[in-house]
Amino acid sequence: MNPVTDTRAYGAETGGLKALQGAVGVALKMKEDSMMADVTKALTEYRKQVDNLTYNPENGLFHLENENAKDLTQKYQTGESEIRRNILKTLPNYKAARDAFEKNVEQLNMRTTELYQKKEYQEAEKYKDATVNDFIEQAQISMQRGYQTIGVVGDRLDDIRKTIYANYASTKGLQWCKDKAEEVAGKSIQQAMAQASADDSQEGLENLINNYSPLVNPQYIRNFIAANNQQKKQAYINDEGKRLFSQFGNDMAGARKFIASMDLEEPSTGNFGLMAVAEMAKQEGYPSYLAEIGGTTCAHWATTAVHKVDPSFPVIDNVDVLVDTAREKRIYHKGDGYQGRPGDLVVIDYPNEKQGHTFMIGNDGTVWNAGGATPLYNQKATPEEFARICGGTISGIVSISSISGGGVGPARKRKLTPAEQDKVFAAYQKERGIAESIKNQQRRTVMEALQNQAAEMAANGVYDENAYIHLADGYKGTDMYADAVRAVSGWAGHGASIAGVSRRGHSSGGGSSANDAYAAFIEQMQDGSMNETEVRAMLTASDVSPDSALGKKALATNRYILSGGSNVINQLKLKWENSGHNTGDFNKALPYLMNYISGEKEAGKKPSFGDMWAALLDGEQPVTYRTSSGVKMLKKNQIFNSTGAYSWNPDTGETWQEGHDLPTIFTGDDMDEYAGGIDAEEED
């Protein structure tokens, strides 16, 4: 075709050109669609690899925590750049495709980077929290272990406060740090107090309450203060119980009367610091200068208010003296993190004068100030703000609120309530019980030693009862003498058995036991002709101590006879003879009867004549028993006269004897040896 020829001039055919143009358009459209498919595929792969970098369960970056999450965003960006670079290599070398990919990827990357930054911050905060908590925990452990060492608790509390401010002041603010430091300090002191209580360290608990309770909110230690006050009250009650027993011994009526007059000192329930503030408020408008003290009144009026609450705290006219006094009382805080509470006195330094002024912290965010040119007044300000207003800085704080222990008021006297009187009396009774227990233990030791000596004598064949009674001579004049005599006198019979002194042939008068002697004494006393002096002389002449078991029994019998028992005995003897009994056997039957009468009297009973006659006949009842040589028989009164046994079970051998608290064992052969029974077939 001629290039200069206008095809339209001749009406040329243009359909082929249009077809060609359409084909080119379709090709371009196909190429564009193919490019977008490549971009979409690349974006999909990008998302897949970024998700794997972030969330893979094994090594995904979002699974890193605490210190391992440090530089998390940087790690992501490094990984993301490599992913982007590798995927770009797979795209066709078309600018449009690469631009589309980069544009979409950048939007995705911005959103993902923001997520990583949040995650990194959260993990950093968690790591910081964990680190600070570890530090606090170690400090608290140190306090629990060293609460008895001066300075340990205060130093650790200061460390905790500084750590909290250093880590959180820039992110959470000063007020949050102040609240957090107060909370941690409260719980730390609480834990140290719990440890002191577990250690039963009253002194340690007192020191914590008195020295550190002002550092914390009372809510954390209120229970410990209450428990400590209760423990001090209980200690007072216990001490008074000991003192009362020392003073009154067993005089319970005297102790009761004295307890009713006693006073109790206990802390007042008001907050000491607030009580001081209340007294300070009463002085509002008082002069700022007093000629009699030669100066301004900042320390004077403040300590006057404290003195009114607690007279033991002096009125002080000079700030330096105030600081020295506070140091002596261990209530001065300087550089230890103490925040100050109502009633405390703040000491400030001026640029040209150290410890140049003091003022009192009020309640509800106020201060009370005196001195200068203005009378005593109240102003809304924090201690730090008011120190700046005065042109100075805080030097230290006198923790008036801690006097008498953790914001608890001074001790006051009052009378004991009836319930408290009962508790003190119970403590006194407890001391009496302890003393009685010790005395009983001593008594048991003495009795055991005496019985060991008596057993040794019996093993050597000693059967003279007086020899045993002499063992108790060392306890004459004490309340243990009677028990001592009873403990040894029963061993004479055992000594007789060892010595081979037989009681056989009892009916012929054989035997020399204490009960045989008792029967002889009754025979002489039964007519009522002997007074107590004569009976004592008879006992002494028979080598029987009036204080021995036998002597006491003889004296008691004579008193019964003299009180009218002689007539009863004579009537019983007459009936005995008229009933066909052997007259000579009456005196041998009488000891069994007298033992019955004595037992009834101890039980508060008064036996009738018929009861006594029945007892006499009961003593005549035979008891059969087996021996190695056959079946033998004895009357009950014979058993009693020979062994002092008022009850004997021949089957088991269990024997209850006069003067013995526990049973002994007598076999049939033993009883035969002591009492000399007869064959059961023989006539009695």
Word description of this protein:
The protein has helices at about 15-55, 70-90, 95-145, 150-170, 175-200, 200-210, 220-250, 250-260, 270-280, 300-310, 320-330, 385-390, 420-460, 465-470, 480-490, 490-500, 515-525, 530-540, 550-580, 585-600, 610-620, 635-645, 670-675, and strands spanning about 265, 290, 295, 330-335, 345-350, 355-360, 365-370, 375-380, 395-400, 410-415, 620-625, 630-635, 645-650, 655, 665, 680. Among the domains are: about 270-410, endopeptidase domain like (from Nostoc punctiforme) (endopeptidase fold (from Nostoc punctiforme)); about 500-680, no CATH class. It is elongated and about 150 Å long. It has a six-stranded antiparallel beta sheet, sandwiched between helices. By secondary structure, the protein is α+β, with helices and mostly antiparallel strands. It starts with 14 loop residues before the first helix and ends in a 5-residue tail after the last strand. It is about 60% helix and about 10% strand. Mean pLDDT is about 80; it is low at about 1-10, about 20-30, about 405-410 and about 500-510.
